[in-house]
Design goal:
Two copies of one chain form a homodimer. By secondary structure, the first copy, chain A, is mostly beta strands. The first copy, chain A, has strands spanning 2-5, 12-13, 20-28, 37-53, 59-65, 67-71, 78-80, 83-87, 93-97, 104-111. In chain A, 35% of the residues are buried.
Chain lengths: 116, 116
């Protein structure tokens, strides 16, 4: 068992799918105990975006701070602090904070399908 | 895909293992999209506790608010806001907020081992 502040996890720039001004920290990954799913913390700075993309892994998300437009859902969908977001397997999705004034920060849990 | 405020999920009293002043909301459960792991939100009110217990399911936890003593770890271990806690499979654990002055609120992700 361990308890660590999330800032102790390395903050890594996200470049996937043309993302901008976005970082990820692997809070619980394979090297830190994850068996079949991993917990990450994403931070999309003001002006940042994770563009539309898709993959087999579903997402279970909890928003810690800020708000962003959800890309790939219904028009006008916003995810904001205290929201739970679920993205099914293979559904295109993205998060747009290009017009935001604070970081959009969220927990995102993902299955380790390839056992990485 | 959906986005809902966590307050839209039913708040259920936890009685497992003699827990007191503790509630759980299943944010993403089997009926709301979870395939192999579920996301819950626990709230241990001031004076509350989840006593020492164990089970095969590991926990990946993120603390949203407050602090609590971790039972079953090292003496004096505290989990507090912005901490990541990992509880391995079959390790006895619990959370003690009996001396706290605010709710200890955390996200807890658990595998659906029995496919419930």
């Amino acid at each position: 068992m361990y308890a660590v502040n999330y800032h102790e996890r390395e903050e890594i720039e996200v470049t996937l799918a043309g993302s901008q001004k976005t970082t990820v920290r692997w809070l619980v990954g394979k090297r830190t105990g994850a068996k079949t799913y991993a917990m990450r913390l994403f931070d999309i700075k003001p002006g940042g975006i994770i563009p539309l993309h898709e993959h087999a892994e579903e997402h279970e998300i909890f928003v810690l701070q800020g708000q962003a437009k959800i890309i790939g859902g219904n028009d006008g969908d916003i995810a904001k602090k205290d929201d739970v977001v679920f993205v099914p397997s293979n559904q295109p999705h993205g998060y747009d904070n290009t017009e935001g004034t604070e970081s959009f920060r969220f927990i995102c849990v993902i299955p380790l399908l390839d056992n990485e």
